Amino acid sequence: MTDPLTSRAAPLRMRRRRLVAPDPALPREVPCGTEAVVVGAGVAGVSAAVVLAERGVRVILLEAAAHLGGRLGAWPEVLPDGSEQVVEHGFHAFFRHYYTWRAVLARIDPGLRFLAPVGGYPVISRRWPDEDLSGLPAAPPLNLLTLLLRSKSLSWRDMAGADPDAGRALLAYDRATTTAELDGLDAAAFLDRLGVSERTRGMLFEAFARSFFCDQDGLSAGELVAMFHYYFLGNPEGIGFDAPATDHRTAIWDPLARYLRGYGAEVQTGRGATRLVPAGQGWRVETDAGELATRHVVLALDPAGLRDLLAASPEAAASAPRFAAQCAGLRTAPPFAVTRLWLDRDVAPERGVFSAVSGERTLDSITVYSRLEAPSAEWAARTGGSVVELHSYACPEPDAKAATEAMHAELRGLWHEVRAAEVLHAHQQHEATAPAFPPGTAGTRPGVRTDARGVRVAGDFVELPYLAGLMERAAMSGVLAANDVLAEAGAAAEPVDGVPQRGLLAGVPRIRGRA
C-alpha cells in the first residue's frame, strides 16, 4: 500500500524493506470458527485485532479503560467555560517510516488525510541557539554531511575529536553486533565515550535519548544506537513527521472501533483481564465481568499490566516458566508527565508547533496544540487564547502538580511571552506505564511467541525480530502476533515492511579495538 505522505525517494538505494511476505499458496481467510481474545486496546492490541478480524477470526477485544488507545488514548474533558475538549496522553509524532501503523490507519482513511505535516523539528534551549533536525537528506552519509554543514551545534572540531569507535558504532548498527558490544553499557557512558562537546551532546543527542522515556543512565547504549539508526541513520523517509489534524478519538479510535465492529469484532471497554488459566487445548480469560474461553490469546498490555496478570495467574505461569520469568523481569520507565494549559493569550508567532527541549530539569517538549489540531484551534480563535502542552518524558517530580509547576516555570524561562499569560485551565497527568530498556536486558523481554502455546504478546516493549520504535514497535508486534495466529490457522501472513536492518558501516571492524 502506497503511503501518500512518504517523502521523495531516498538516495544510496535506501528503501523500505519487505520484512514479512505472505505465502501466495496459502488462503487469506482462516477456517470458520477460529476465535481470539485480544487483551488491551492500545496501538498493539488494535493492530492485532484489525488483522485478525479482516481474516475471519471472531475477535473479542478487551480494554480495562473506558476508552481505546492506551498511551495514545483520548477522552473528553469539560473546561471551566463549559466547552468540551478531547485530551490525550501527550503529543505523538507519526513518523513516515511507521509503515505498519500507517497501514493499519489506512484502513479507516486510505489517503491518511487526517494526518498533516508538523513542519520543523526544532530543538530549543536557554543556553544555545535552536537546532532544526528537519529537511535533512534521508540516507547517510549525506544526512550527516548536511547536518555538519548547517548545524550550529556540531562542528568539524566535534567530528575530529569524537571517539572513532563510538562514531563507528552509530553508523554500524547490526542487531547481534550492537547488542554484544553495547547492551551492557548505559547511554550516558556511551555519550561520554563519544567525546563531543557539551553543546553537541545537549542539542543533538540528549534530547533524542530522553524521548524514549528513560534517563540516560537507565537506557541501554545498544537501544540508543538502534533507535538512532531507526529514526535517523537508517530511515528512508527522513526525520519529518505528521500528526492528526483533530483529536485522537475523532481521528483514530472511534473510526477503528467502527471498522472492527464492521468485521464482527466485539470491542468491550471497561473490561479488564484479571487472570489467565489453561483450559484443555486453549485458555480461559477471567475478567471483572465474567470469563471467556478461547484457543488464541493476544496479550497487548503495558509492562506492569502484563507482569501483574501473570503474577495473578499461577497455573499459566507454571505451564510456561520461561514466559513467566520474562514477565516477572519486565521494568517500567520513570513516570512521564503531561500538562495541557489553556492560556488567555497566544504564544509568539515564531514558536514551532512542536519543540524538543534541551537542558531543562523537567521539561522535554512543548506542543502548541492550538496550531496543531482543529478543536484546540477553534477554542483559541473563539477566546483569543492558546493551548500549549508540556511533556516530561522521564519526570523527576513526584506527582502531577509538582510536574506542572516545574514545567510551567521552565516554559516561562524559555518563552518570555508566557510569563504574563493567565492559565484558564490545566489538565495534568503523571503515570508510569512506558517500558524501560535498561543496560543488560536485551533478550530478556518476552517475544511475540511464548512457551504458553496459543498465547502471544504485543506491545512496544516486546523483543521483535525486526527493528522498530515506539508506536511502530507496538503496531508491528500486534501484526506479528496476528500473523502467528494466522500461521497456526493455516492462513497467509499479513505483509510487514520496515527500514533497512543494518547500518552503512555494519561489518566494519572496530578501529581501536573498543566499542
Report the portion of residues in β strands: 15-25%
What is the CA-atom radius of gyration, in angstroms? 23 Å
Q: Name the CATH superfamily classification of the largest domain.
A: FAD/NAD(P)-binding domain
CATH architecture descriptor of the largest domain: 3-Layer(bba) Sandwich
CATH topology name of the largest domain: FAD/NAD(P)-binding domain
State the secondary-structure class: alpha+beta
Identify the CATH class of the largest domain.
Answer: Alpha Beta
What features would you describe in this structure?
The chain folds into 3 domains: 19-70 and 247-331 and 437-498, 3-Layer(bba) Sandwich (FAD/NAD(P)-binding domain); 127-233, no CATH class; 335-431, Polyamine Oxidase, Chain A, domain 2. It is an alpha+beta fold. The two termini are 39 Å apart. The protein has helices spanning 43-54, 99-105, 142-150, 156-161, 164-171, 175-182, 187-194, 198-210, 221-233, 248-262, 303-311, 314-319, 321-328, 374-383, 400-414, 470-489, and strands at 17-20, 35-39, 58-63, 74-78, 84-88, 94-95, 115-117, 122-124, 131-132, 241-244, 266-269, 273-279, 282-287, 290-294, 296-299, 336-343, 354-357, 365-368, 386-392, 423-431, 455-457, 496-498. The longest helix has 20 residues, at 470-489. Helix 1 links the parallel strand 2 and strand 3 (58-63). The strands form 6 sheets. It has a 7-stranded mixed β-sheet with strand order 9-8-17-18-19-16-20, sandwiched between helices. The protein has a 5-stranded parallel β-sheet with strand order 11-3-2-15-21, covered by helices on one side. A 3-stranded antiparallel β-sheet has the order 6-10-7, with no helix packed on it.
